[in-house]
Amino acid sequence: MNNWQTHIEQAEQSCRQSGERLTTKRKQVLAILLKADKAISAYELIELYSEQHQRTLAPMSAYRILDFLESVHLAHRLNTANKYVACAYIGCEHSHELPQFIVCQECQRVDELSACSSNLMALTDEIKQTGYQLSSPQIELTGVCQACLKLKQEQVTTTIEHRTQQQA
C-alpha cells in the first residue's frame, strides 16, 4: 500500500471519530494533494482532478472541499502563495496549533515542520507585547531545498568545466 493511501485511511478514521464525512470527492482531492510534490492552487487542483478522474470539478466545489480539508486539519492553505498542501501529520496524535512550512523558492516544494506549543505561546506573548493580535499562527519560511542547491552546484561546475575547455 502506498503512503498516500495510508494517509487517506487515517484521514477517514480521523473524520469518523470527529463526526465528519470524508466523501469520495474529498478523498480524491486529498489524494491529489498528498501525491503532489509541491503546493498547488485551487485551479491546478481542478486541472489535476480532471486529468486523473476524467470528470470536471467546479471551482466552487474545489474551494468547499479545500475549506473542509482545512477545517479538519487534513490540508493547509499557504497564505503567501494562496496554494494548498496536504497536512504532513495526518493520523498523528499531536496538536496542530502552530503549522510551520518551509517553501523552496526554486521548485516550490513544501515541507511541514513540527513545532511545540511552548513556541506558539512564546511567540503569541511577544506578538501581544508589540501591540498586535494574532489572526493566524501559521509560519511560512522560504529557502532553497537540498535538491535545488545540488542542481545549482552542478550547473556552476558544468559552466566552469565548459569555460576551462574553451580556454584550452
TrEMBL record:
Keywords of the record: DNA-binding, Metal-binding, Repressor, Transcription, Transcription regulation, Zinc
Binding site for Zn(2+): 104, 107, 145, 148
Keyword Repeat among UniProt keywords: no
GO biological process terms on file: negative regulation of DNA-templated transcription; regulation of secondary metabolite biosynthetic process
GO cellular component, as recorded: cytosol
InterPro entries: FUR, Fur_C, WH-like_DNA-bd_sf, WH_DNA-bd_sf
Annotated organism of origin: Thalassotalea euphylliae
Protein's name according to its UniProt entry: Transcriptional repressor
Cofactor(s) named in the record: Zn(2+)
Range of residues in the leader sequence: none
Coiled coil spans: none
Family statement drawn from the similarity comment of this UniProt entry: Belongs to the Fur family.
Cofactor binding note from Swiss-Prot or TrEMBL: Binds 1 zinc ion per subunit.
GO molecular function, one term: transcription cis-regulatory region binding
UniProt keyword annotation of Aminoacyl-tRNA synthetase present: no
